[in-house]
Structure prediction request, 974 residues.
Amino acid sequence: MNKKMNACHLMRTASPLALTLAVLGAWPVLAQSADGGKVEMIEEIVVTGSLIQRPNNVSVSPITTVSPEAIKESGQVEIEAALNQLPSFTAAGTSSTGGQGQGGRASLNLRGLGSNRNLVLLNGKRLPLSDINGNVDINILPEAIIGGVDVITGGASAIYGSDAMSGVVNFKTIPYFDGVQADVQFGQDERGDVFKKSASVTLGSSIGEDRGHVLFSASYTDRPGLQGSKRSFFEFVTPSGFIGTGTYVPNASNLPTQAAINSVFTRYGVTSTVARTLNLGFNNDGSLFVQTGALNYKGPTDNGYAIVAGNVRMPVGQQVQFQNALERKTAFGSFDYEVTEGITAYGQFMYVDSLVHTESGGSLTQIGNLTTIPVTNPFIPADLRTILASRPNPNAPFTWNGRYVGIPDKNWDEQYKVSQFALGFKGDLGASWKWDLYSSYDESQHDQALHSAVVKSRVQALLNAADGGASLCAGGFNPFGISNALNISDACETYMTKTALSTEKLTQSQVQAQVSGPVVELPAGPLQVALLGSYRRNTYRFTPDSDLVTSNIEAVTGSAPARGNIGLKEIAGQVDIPLISGAEFAEELAVGAAARYSDYSTTGSVTSYEGDLRWKPIGSLMLRGSYQRAVRAPNIGELFSPPTGTQVQFGTPPASVGDPCDVRSIARTGTGGAQVRALCIAQGVPANVVDTYTFPTTATGGTIRGNLGLTPEKADTYNVGGVFTVPGDTPWISGTTISVDYYNIKIKEVISSVPGLTTLSKCYNLDGSNPTYAATNEFCQLLTRDAQGQLQDVSLPFLNLGGLETDGIDIQINWSASLSDLGADVGDPSAEIYVTPNIGWVNHYNIQTLPGSAFQDYVNTSTLGRALPRWKALTTVGYKSDAFGVGLRWRYQGAMDDVTAVTTPTNPSPGVPAYNLFDLFGNVRVSEGIDLRAGVTNLFDKGLPIVASSQNSTDVGVYDAVGRSYYVGLRARF
Prediction:
């Protein structure tokens, strides 16, 4: 079998996760004719990661190519769910997660360095942005038009521009064809509460006597939402102190007398002393109970209520929708047409209408100015009146905590309308040079409707009314006890709530011109260059609901109107220089370089550049290496974001960090407990409360704000590796390809908001960075407490902070063998077996929080939204032929420590065990043009592991919360 036949065999037998285009590039592209004389050259190509077109264009950065079949075999209707299984990806935002009005967007995160540090393209061109942080929602891409995905893992800013620090994900459309292709897929989980369906139709045709081609595709996807109450794992997850009974919260400066407390609880038969500082809840019979300790509690302990560690709680994991409902409609069209000889016009349009429904549980009395209850409220229970009357100021209103169980959970309908229009011309300049002029405009509009939003000012009006609000709506509002809280009249529900409407809009305009071709013919081949010039402008406008602006909605972080724009002018060039060809120990030796100069209207100019080398000492081995200086300019959100609310999740102590001033926290019970106590008092925790202080829930408010003083990030990226193709005619191993690549990425002046957990850890010396426990510590200055000492806000400004460093090794193996070559007589010459391990090993993942501070290694740790296993692998084993195929996919993720092993090493939470999932898939050709596929995902119904530092005790973006599921699909071509 000659080399060209070997190459064709490799391409024909490529597994569902074909290893790399670079592997294909290891094969010679010159084929000798039968008489040994005439040489024929294949068509020039462009590999992702290059501006230069030429034969045998190989990548000096590792490229993983994902086939459309591999996406189908994952059984997912969401593209990011399939890609996140690859070792090089860390789960970021997914279409299944979000809550709090941020659901539905699906982004990609290479190397765990952030979804805004990799660039997502379609056919080498930028896609519309989905948010102000520069992320692309990849679910705007109709799956029917995806002909493959190239993933470059390594800096590529010099080639593609800002954002390509950790790599590039380039989606490629299917080739033009004549005919119609229809595809449908249905999926159902074993428990019967998740039914996914998708359908698409694609039409293609040649036009103008084959001078051009047109392609049109329309698709539809529908997926239901799934509540935590549907899975037993979430039954006791996130035990919140905000409960439906409501609780009285004592004011440290206006406490009732101990005698009054004792007199009430003695009558209940409670013999222990009830501290004056503890929250008191309300039983349905009007009696009181102690929330911390559950003394005299007479309420339910099921259906959303629980006694957790002796405390009355409402686990909110049951309320959270951990898979968002999604309905998506897409349309895509493209064309090319030879206008005249040597000039071709081309273009495309895309339109997406996506509706995502998210829920995040019942509203509670949290975030912003808290509502209070005056002593004139007619619904106050008699025993509580006795206690209130004993305060130094008996007529003062009191603060209450509660969850609005009589009102539907707050929920969002989020509609994303995305459109893009592009037109370009390309052609030849003389015999060998080519030119390309391209322009596009895209627009993303996000309309958000927050339903059942509880309006603080209206609740306060009801509480203040002398008749309890009965004059404002039927029955008024009685927050004392579960029965009362549940029996809110329709009129009062309407009065207390609204639908809050907000809109954000992003636009992107871009123009790009490129020329490429040979400059001079060298002995080893042509020296080629590519030159590029471009202009891009991004705009953003956000108009929030007026009650969000004033933080007048319960349990939803406030926001403010915002707008901003960024203009960018760029020039770039790339050169490829062949040095040796056809020599002993140097069948090919070449070097290359690229540089890009970018001028931003906001942050000025910056330069990125790269140098690379590729060497083929023998035909079966290619060695490669590169160095790249990559850059990322601050995006619209980092520059212009107004003070915007978010949540800082820290769990409940002692299992998690919690509020370090909480008496249950390791910060208070550890060796530095006395110093932490003094620091808490200095921050505003009243001295008469500090020894009984507890924080009632698992999260607090945070405030993110932009910074116009930011400067671009800079990264140094190194890649060294090789691709070996086993030579010879032995059918068991010949043609096997092995790719091994080492990467090293170091990012300086990282743009980030200080993580809330990091702020707490550093302020309270949990990592040794505030040994004097000074209240003037820069991290302590980011914390705000209210008059009761409750942690109210963690400031999260964007800053150029420290650094990110990661390095590791990627290993990809592609083995396949024809059964007939192995001597097996199966009656089908196309039958073969294959194994394709794709393995990632991470050596370090270092984070430097501030310039000059020590790096901390987070490798092999897990927290919500950032699982960083040292080992991750995806392996497919299967059989396939022209008529039938079956395979097994093994998804592996190594055991990890909890992130607290780094942030609070003196009290780390339990880690996560190794995680293995298996998927079974198969396909059969029913007839010419009709293919049937089916499969089982999570074959052994693997359950969810506990992620201790996560608010919901797990991470549904990383682990499968749905369970064993089945799917079947049909594709027909006409």
